[in-house]
Specification:
single chain, 319 residues, mainly beta, Neuraminidase, 5-stranded mixed sheet, 4-stranded antiparallel sheet, 2 helices, globular
Length: 319
């Protein structure tokens, strides 16, 4: 075997190990390849350029919006490497962020028709959970342990005027939403997620390339703190892990930045395409990060050293 052939074989073995680590459903998932090394999961071109909103249910299935055409949601079964159609929103609606609550309900932010849709566990039919004409365009979602939803609501045409919504579940099963007040003027609110204790909301702002932290007090965003600011390249979706680290998509940089709660940059994970739009944690141990990739319109994934916050809500055994 030549040196070049040896290097090629080693690369193929590493790729295979990562694939197994991402999708094995048994205890052997811990026997993994290198961490923080991304690989493509689904074929190129399955989704539209609006690929977004990745979320994983308690069974390990991955859901991503705009499969083949706008307004749909695709599903990648646990252990799978190809998407299939899961559901379609009514004509004119287009989904973006997706989240699941502890009871298996699926929520989809519809930026076109100003809705938050809900799909009950075991069903595929969406119904309106919350609607408001005061939405600019609901974009991404975060969910608390008690099922409270937080929705980013940017105004992309303006450097200010962005909003964050708090949406709770009423006794009749419908959502009740309100715009959260803030002691600072919000920019183009985009990605968002909670700290592991649920007390802090992290929000990325596209126009300033900043990530802000707020203390949550009911419908108030208090004590704004600048976590980090990047000198170049925009910021998009974000998720947190059980250590409170922030995983942030930086589309034009082609990276996922991993940021400590104090704002220091721990590392940047190089992804395969140069337009990662959003991400979510999943896998049987909560330590696989799935990334939606606009360039190539596919899903990629990499393994990490700690579980995400949300898998620990849905599957406490992983933590």
């Amino acid at each position: 075997m030549t040196t070049a052939e040896g290097h090629r074989l080693a690369g193929l073995v590493a790729v295979g190990l990562i694939a197994c680590a991402a999708f094995l459903t048994g205890p052997s998932v811990s026997a993994e390849g290198p961490l923080f090394t991304s690989m493509r999961i689904t074929p190129e071109g399955e989704y539209t350029p609006g690929i977004e909103g990745p979320a994983v249910d308690a069974s390990g299935n991955l859901y991503v919006v705009n499969f083949q055409r706008s307004g749909t949601t695709g599903k990648v079964a646990s252990g799978g490497q190809q998407s299939e159609l899961f559901t379609s929103l009514p004509a004119g609606s287009i989904g973006n962020g997706i989240r699941f609550d502890r009871d298996g309900r699926m929520f989809i932010a519809d930026f076109k028709k100003h809705n938050i849709w809900v799909i009950e566990r075991g069903d595929t039919t969406p119904r309106v959970y919350f609607h408001s004409d005061r939405f600019n365009q609901p974009n991404d979602l975060a969910i608390a342990a008690d099922g409270t939803l937080y929705a980013s609501d940017p105004r992309f045409a303006s450097p200010s005027g962005g909003q964050i919504w708090r949406i709770t579940r009423s006794a009749d099963g419908k959502g009740r939403g309100e715009v959260m007040s803030s002691t600072r003027r919000l920019g183009v609110t985009n990605g968002l997620d909670l700290s592991p204790d649920g007390a802090t909301l992290y929000v990325s702002e596209s126009n300033s390339r900043e990530v802000w932290a707020y203390r949550i007090d009911g419908s108030k965003l208090l004590d704004p703190r600048l976590v980090t600011r990047f000198a170049d390249f925009e910021v998009d979706g974000l998720r947190t892990d059980v250590n409170g680290r922030i995983y942030l998509a930086r589309p034009s940089a082609g990276t996922i930045a991993i940021i400590a709660p104090d704002g220091s940059l721990e590392r940047q994970v190089l992804v395969l395409g140069k337009q990662p739009t959003n991400l979510t944690f999943g896998g049987p141990d909560g330590r696989t990060v799935f990334v939606t990739q606009k360039e190539g319109r596919f899903i990629e994934a990499f393994r990490v050293d700690r579980p995400g916050r949300e898998p620990c809500l849905q599957m406490p055994r992983v933590c």
